[in-house]
Sequence to fold (449 residues):
Amino acid sequence: MNAYVARVIEDVKVKYKNEPEFIQTVEEVLSSLSPVVDAHPEYEKADLLGRMIEPERMFTFRVVWVDDNGVAHTNTGYRCQFNGAIGPYKGGLRFKPNVYAGIIKLLVFEQTFKNALTGLPIGGGKGGSDFNPKGRSEAEIMRFCQSYMTALYRYIGPDVDVPAGDEGVGGREIGYMFGQYRRLKGVWENGVLTGKGMTYGGSRFRPEATGYGAMYYLNNMLAHQGDTIEGKTIAVSGYGNVAWGICKKARELGAKVVTISGRDGYIYDEEGVTSSDEKVAYLLEMRASKNGSIKDYADKFGVPFFPGEKPWGVKVDIAMPAATQNEVVMADAEKIAANGVKYYMEVSNMSTTNDALNFLRTKDMIVGPAKAVNAGGVGVSALEMSQNSERLVWTAEEVDAKLEAMMKDIHDASAKAAETYGLGYDLVSGANIAGFTKVAEAMMAQGIF
Ligand code: 2IT
Fold:
């Protein structure tokens, strides 16, 4: 490993020892970069990596809200404006009890390189709160979102920082936050948030974009291998927007998603979770209910349910973790490899622990990394920003065509970057190198700060 790269990784391990998820992503990304840093000794002199692992700005704030019984609750809000070299900070908000600085920084580090991969002018941002939306009423969610935005609105804007959704934040929450922003600022700046509803500046396909994009990326991997999607079986984890988008597109393309999972376990549906309109409607219902239980699906459609388990022991052609970070650990990776999975596609950010990912990369399968596979989500967010700034709305066909082309570009740029450094068809290293190269060149051009 390049000595400068190794030193920066060691420094991060010491300095951020209480943020293990951040250490994990820094190690994953930087360990791909040795050949690039070898070729660019000027990066060390400019301490480019040291600057890249330090947020331009990161803040926390108090978010107080009153529940339906009149009792006040205090949460911590976060926003990290990580890297603005190639565009306004851009990235989602996650509302989940385990949110803390380490999770925000894992997500924002990934986001920075992912956003660069989209080819669009968006920098890296991320935020959220340790608020738990589970079991909260509509009115409580609204008051929380309003309070969150009241604390944040001064620090964001269409040319400054553009939040969106992530886990626990969907169209409903974005609506409340946009309303509060508009109320406080008294301006129509709908480019300040993405993932909005269609009546006030949302983009066609944003809800489906991450899942659709993942399937388009998969198509490019398959084509590279001289393979096709038709008739393939897919194991998916998760039950949210992303899993739903994958299922919809898989059905359209003639592939079959046989598992989905919730907080309580996973279901195995041999006929496919999108084999009937009723099942598709059920997926939508589940996504909206937010209680995270999947057992009802098994009861309703008479398929096996595996309480407390993840779907990685199922024999399929393609495995697509789409729930949350580190959902695939070494024991899961061993099962995936033993089952002869041919394509392992990370969809959730940092789906895989580093040891499990490195293990899978040595096996006879193609690995697609999250920051490339799931980039269609933020990519369509950037398209939403374009539509907002031009005050127009593109058709579904226009957005879909742009998304499909974007995913091909991301795949091809990653493959080419790996090729350039003699790494073969290594999409993990390729995505890291391609994303890094764009941000690095922009930072070098803008001077030292
Ligand atoms: O992880 C992600 O890329 C997102 N949660 C979407 C971010 C965005 O700005 O659409």
About this structure: The CA atoms of residues 301 and 446 lie 58 Å apart. The chain has three domains: 1-54, 55-200, 209-373.
